[in-house]
Write a structure and sequence with these properties.
108 residues; alpha+beta; 2 domains; 3-stranded antiparallel sheet; Molybdopterin oxidoreductase domain-containing protein; Mopterin_OxRdtase; oxidoreductase activity
Length: 108
């Protein structure tokens, strides 16, 4: 039985170009697992369940340094990603199939 559930609302689903932005995801706090996804299609819901803890999943940000990966803070990883995008001559952002979603505006 699930003792503590955290419901996260207005979640953006990144699994296709539609970028649905009204998903609700219930997370079992004790087990750190997704237990329910609402307002998403079958593909999106399945992908969220696939994000449950696994030995085959990276859970901390990594940056390649001298040919090998090193663990860094989220702030350092996000700053590095932002630097790469700012310096790119032709940055490519995936998942935008229309111009009517707030997520696309943030990306642009």
């Amino acid at each position: 039985m699930v003792e503590k559930i955290n419901t996260i609302t207005d979640v953006v689903c990144p699994f296709c170009g539609t970028l649905c932005d009204d998903l609700e995801v219930d997370v079992d706090i004790k087990e750190n697992k997704v237990i329910e996804v609402r307002n998403g299609c079958q593909i999106g819901a399945k992908k969220y369940f696939a994000s449950n803890p696994s030995d085959h999943r990276y859970e901390k940000p990594l940056i390649k340094d001298n040919g090998s990966f090193k663990e860094v803070s989220w702030d350092e990883a996000l700053n590095k990603a932002a630097d790469i995008l700012v310096k790119a001559k032709r940055p490519l952002l995936y998942g935008f199939s229309s111009t009517e979603c707030e997520a696309q505006g943030k990306g642009v």
